[in-house]
Amino acid sequence: MSDTEMQPIVLGAFTAESRIADAANSSVYRGRHNGTNTDVAIKILQYDHSVDESRQRFQHEVRSTARILHPGIVRLFE
Description:
Largest sheet: 4 strands, antiparallel
Number of helices: 1
Order of helices and strands: EEEEH
């Protein structure tokens, strides 16, 4: 799958450079951490009318991912 070209978007300490995947409630972007110039993946939730449920699912995903330390699994920054 090729990245979707776009203008870079600064999101706090990160810059989203291209969209690499879409899911039902989120999009994932290839990006960089601005302070360290580290390659990162940035996941952004889509607006959902059931905001509380979506936010709870995402927070559960964040907590679960943060506990995993494996070279084949992404590290969680924030």
